[in-house]
Design a protein that fits this description.
The chain is of the alpha/beta class. The chain folds into two domains: about 140 residues, no CATH class; about 160 residues, no CATH class. It is built from 13 helices and six strands. A four-stranded mixed beta sheet has the order 3-4-5-6. The chain has a two-stranded antiparallel ribbon with strand order 1-2. Helix 2 crosses helix 5 and helix 8 packs across helix 13.
């Protein structure tokens, strides 16, 4: 659905939207299970039906139904509708297409909207206002996807305690990159923080949002241990070395830059260009986290398993405290 133009909502449109949402919310909440979760099929039904409302009212089966499924339902369609509202994270790949529940839910929702819409005189709205109404309802469902899907969907990666911790960290970085946005950056920031908590239990390791700048905290880097300023970045830039690292050196700190293993060479080139290659330590995040965890575990398999679990638990606790997006938490496998 194309976003409506920026014209102000009329009083009638605002009142109509409120009437419909007042009816839709109980329907949506009534589809929570005993654990308080909402199936993604409920969200998909909302995205599709609100999309069809832009062009038709009342919502008859001929408008939205194709045989035993919702017309056009697919992972690609759900992705498109979410992207219209600025949400680009990876949603369910099927978009409710393969579930028989989706059409049943769509029928229920269409009936709910038809009933509330008749009372609110949706038919009195012109085409542009009905389009705007559909956009408002769809935005409401997109927010439910953010809260009830992404807000509960943890990071999932291949985690096997028999593997090196370095490999597991690499898998978590890959999972973050796949999800997109700033996910990988947040993952490495808090993995490093969790590792520092384990390695330096007597130090107070700061816990801030991934987006908090060093300057806001008064620290020399993302983390500061003794006289070392630690900078964690997924994508090294000249500014890190020309700016932050040189400033560290000027103030008597030993800068250490942590990057993914595939960014090591680029970081080294920036350090050389800045003329500080012999004064800055550059290390892969995978090795920085992995080696220390295995050392703390005494390189014993049973202890490595325990320390790996502690790393992930501390990571999740940091996300809980510092980030509004709790979908950044890692799904800890039962084999730990």
């Amino acid at each position: 659905m194309v976003k409506p133009n920026g014209q102000e909502e009329s009083a009638q449109l605002t009142a109509t939207a409120k009437t419909l949402l007042d009816a839709i919310e109980p329907w949506y909440e009534g589809n929570r299970n005993a654990k308080g979760k909402v199936d993604s099929n409920v969200m998909c039904a909302g995205l599709y039906i609100s999309d069809y409302l832009a062009a038709a009212f009342p919502l008859t089966p001929a408008v939205y139904k194709a045989d035993t499924q919702v017309k056009g339902a697919s992972g690609a369609k759900a992705k498109e509708l979410l992207a219209d509202h600025g949400e680009t994270r990876k949603f369910t790949s099927e978009g409710g297409r393969t579930s028989r529940k989706t059409i049943v839910l769509a029928e229920q929702l269409a009936d709910t909207i038809n009933s509330a819409g008749a009372a609110a005189e949706v038919n009195a709205l012109g085409p542009s206002e009905r389009h705007a109404l559909a956009w408002i309802l769809q935005e409401w469902f997109v927010d439910r996807v953010r809260d009830d899907y992404f807000g509960r969907q943890k990071i999932s990666a291949d985690i096997d305690p028999s593997w090196s911790i370095r490999t597991i960290v690499a898998n978590l970085i890959a999972a973050g990159r796949e999800r997109g946005g700033n996910t990988a950056g947040a993952i490495v920031q808090h993995l490093v923080g969790a590792k520092l908590q384990i390695r330096f239990p007597d130090e107070k390791i700061n816990v801030e949002s991934y987006t908090t700048a060093d300057q806001q905290t008064g620290r020399a880097g993302d983390y500061q241990i003794g006289h070392t300023a630690i900078h964690v970045t997924m994508s090294p830039s000249s500014q890190v070395f020309q700016g932050r690292c040189k400033d560290n050196i000027h103030h008597g700190f030993r800068p250490r830059v942590l990057v993914p293993k595939d960014e090591l060479r680029r970081a080294e080139i920036y350090a050389e260009d800045a003329g500080i290659a012999n004064k800055v330590a550059i290390q892969s995040i995978e090795d920085f986290v992995g080696t220390n965890i295995e050392e703390v575990a005494g390189f014993r398999q049973d202890h490595v398993r325990a320390e790996l679990r502690r790393l992930l638990e501390l990571y999740n606790a940091r996300i809980e405290k510092a980030e509004s997006d709790h979908s950044l938490k890692v799904q800890i496998p039962e084999n730990l």
